Amino acid sequence: MGAQFTRNFCIIAHIDHGKTTLSDRLLETTGTIEDRERQDQLLDSMDLERERGITIKAHPVTMKYVAKNNQVYRLNLLDTPGHVDFSYEVSRSLAACEGAILVVDAAQGVEAQTVANVHLALKQNLTVVPVINKIDLPNADIASVKKQLEEILAIPAGEAILASAKTGIGIEEILEAIVQRIPPPAEPEDDRLRALIFDSVFDIYRGVVAYARVFSGNIVSNQAVKLMSTSKNYEVKEVGIFTPKPLAQPKLEAGYVGYFIANIKSTAEIKIGDTLTDQRNSASTPLPGFQEIHPMVFSGIYPINTADFEHLKTAMGKLQINDSAFVYQAESSVALGYGFRCGFLGLLHMEIVQERLRREFDMDIIATYPSVVYHVIKTNAETVEIDNPSFLPDPSVIDEIQEPIVRCFVMCPNENIGDMMQLITERRGEILHTESLDTKRVMLTAILPLNEILVDFNDKIKSVTHGYGSMDYEHFGYRTSNLVKLDMLVNGESVDAFSSIVHRDKADLRGRLLAAKLKEVIPQQLYQVAIQAAIGGKVIARENVSALRKNVTAKCYGGDITRKRKLLEKQKEGKKRMKAIGRVNIPQEAFIEVLKTS
Q1: Distance, CA of 163 to CA of 171 (rounded, Å)
Q2: Euclidean distance between CA atoms 473 and 346, whole angstroms
Q3: How does pLDDT run across 276-314, given as a tens digit for each residue?
Q4: How far apart are CA 24 and CA 29, in angstroms?
Q5: What residues does CATH 3.30.70.870 cover in the chain?
Q6: Where in the chain is the domain with CATH 3.40.50.300?
Q7: Burial 294-327 (b: 16+ CB within 10 A, else e)
Q8: Which CATH superfamily is domain 485-597 in?
């Protein structure tokens, strides 16, 4: 089948707008899967993906479709993750396509991630086919959604296909639109091999399986190939397509989307967005758009039982094999023992990794408060990157600290705009502009520090807007801020697990909250324990855990008052000596409680 009868496309949508259900219907309608293989969310292989209704790993599939003109077409669908954390992987998947189906919920309309995904698709010069899904819902407002397509996304409403992926309405029209509107792959400029790697997974029996889109040349078995970013050489063992199970083929031609297996030992060797070429007849320039994936959020992960450290190490190694964006290195904490400093693409990525460690590897873990990467410029003009508050240099040698910022797009109902603006201002954000989307909703564009949206910003948006708000963000560089290291001292000793880098204006409040929380969970000693929040040498908040009182005068019955005084003075001296040399052992449960709520 020639390249002119091939169509490469992906489906883009906001979370829960019916992307995965639509791909299930397309597979069924084209006869790619048989009735006995049918199940919901077929392309989502993880239990976690099925439960949450999100796509975590991209999955390509090749379908054969007989159009109304009786011509057989090969349709290559790339199922992409929808969440902002995986936007780079989405952009590489889009680069492997010529078109995109944009799915918009007929009841919810255009959301924040819909806008972001359309911009990504248009940046790659893709043909966008709009589909208004869930038209069978009783609260579907098709006219309003068509208006939003024109006003917000500048897509003609007449191009939109009305569909219901659940009931199968409009699926034939979508397939015809893919064939008619999406262009075939462009003619290659030469016959040198250029293939874009847009994802990879690890197979326990066969090693790394790399997903690739061939732009020119062919990939065949026993071919000597190399990766252009690392210049490492490999030999191809097998090539094939997904139907949706892997199906070996003699070769992958220009315009094809499939997989290849070579003698690659780990997914760390393969970079998403890299170009594969022939060893002997190499392409002179790689395909555009490649960049290294860098973690944006860091957190310490420790086993609750210190004896499980080796099990955790093994589990993380296995997890990294399937997720090259996840990075980790060993670290130790005085309070929590041995563990790992882990880097993630974002909050959802962090949540998924922690959940997979608990479920797939049965690990009991505790995660420290998430932090971001700060750029610290020293007085000698040297710049260092800090992802752990413990490594922050002495304030006397710091000239300035820069924090990562994001451009955030928040959609909310008109009546909640005031509360939304207040929330953004509380999080040290500044609103760039507001835009009315229709009579009911507005979109706020704001600049916010990444650190401020890490933990509960999305939850706050949902509670302020009663579930109708949505958010999307993109990284927007770094800016200088008045940041300080907040230390928590227990009996005069700093506890590194509770250290954090915060804005000076918020340090007092956070210090008071942590001190109050620690007061609840630290057990009483025979002497008074001081819990202090400090910035450098200055204490900004204090709580006291009162002493356990031992009644030393109980044995005195009768006699002179001086006998009681003597015993009380003796006890006072003992407590003073004990406080000077005593150490407060903070129980593990206390750490878990505080880190859960911080």
Answers
A1: 7
A2: 11
A3: 888 888 888 888 776 667 777 888 888 887 788 888 888
A4: 9
A5: 297-368
A6: 3-181
A7: ebbbbbbbbbeeeebbeebeebbeebbbbbbbbb
A8: Elongation factor 4, C-terminal domain (3.30.70.2570)
Q: How confident is the model at residue 454 (pLDDT cuts 50, 70, 90)?
A: confident
* Cα three-residue angle 268-274-275, rounded to 5 degrees: 135
Report how far residue 186's alpha carbon sits from residue 287's, in angstroms, rounded to the nearest whole number: 14
Please compute the mean of the pLDDT values over residues 369-398 and round it to a whole number.
Answer: 85
Nearest-CA neighbor of 285 among 192, 186, 188, 213? 192
CA–CA separation, 64 and 109 (whole Å) = 31
d(CA 303, CA 427): 32
Tokens standing for 243?
Answer: 């139907």
Could you report the per-residue pLDDT of 33-76, keeping only the tens digit for each?
655 444 444 444 444 444 444 555 557 888 888 888 888 888 88
The β-bridge relationship of strands 374-378 and 383-386 is antiparallel
Structural contact between residues 496 and 486, judged by C-beta atoms closer than 8 angstroms = no
Strands (E), 186-314: 194-203, 207-216, 219-220, 224-227, 233-242, 246-249, 251-252, 257-262, 275-278, 297-303
Contact call for residues 497 and 488 (beta carbons, < 8 A): no
What is the spatial distance between Cα 189 and Cα 126, in angstroms, rounded to a whole number? Answer: 20
For position 40, what pLDDT does the model report? 47
Q: What percent of the chain clears pLDDT 90, i.e. is strictly above it?
A: 0
Give the model confidence (pLDDT) of 338-361 as tens digits: 888 888 877 777 878 888 888 888
Domain with CATH 2.40.30.10 in the chain: 194-278
What class has domain 375-481? Answer: alpha beta
Q: Which residue has the tokens 């309608």?
A: 29
- Residue 263 to residue 256: CA distance in whole angstroms: 22
Q: What are the backbone dihedrals phi and psi of residue 242, each rounded to the nearest 5 degrees, phi first?
A: -105, 135
The pLDDT value recorded for residue 447 is 92
- Determine the average pLDDT of the residues in 400-415: 87
Of 393, 403, 399, 394, whose CA–CA distance to 377 is shortest?
Answer: 399
**Range(s) of the chain covered by CATH 3.30.70.2570:** 485-597
Mean pLDDT of the chain: 80
- CATH class assigned to 194-278: mainly beta
The pTM is what? 0.70
Dihedral pair phi/psi, residue 18, rounded to 5°? 100, 20
CB 473 within 8 A of CB 84: yes
pLDDT one-digit tens code per residue, 540-573: 888 888 777 666 666 776 667 777 777 777 777 7
Q: Class for domain 297-368, per CATH? A: alpha beta
At 535 the three-state DSSP class reads strand
**Tokens 């505080």 belong to residue:** 594
**DSSP-derived secondary structure letter, 98:** S
Query: Per CATH, the architecture of 3-181 is what?
Result: 3-Layer(aba) Sandwich (3.40)
161, two tokens? 């296909």
- Cα(393)–Cα(375) distance, integer angstroms: 11
CATH 3.30.70.240 residue window(s) in the chain: 375-481
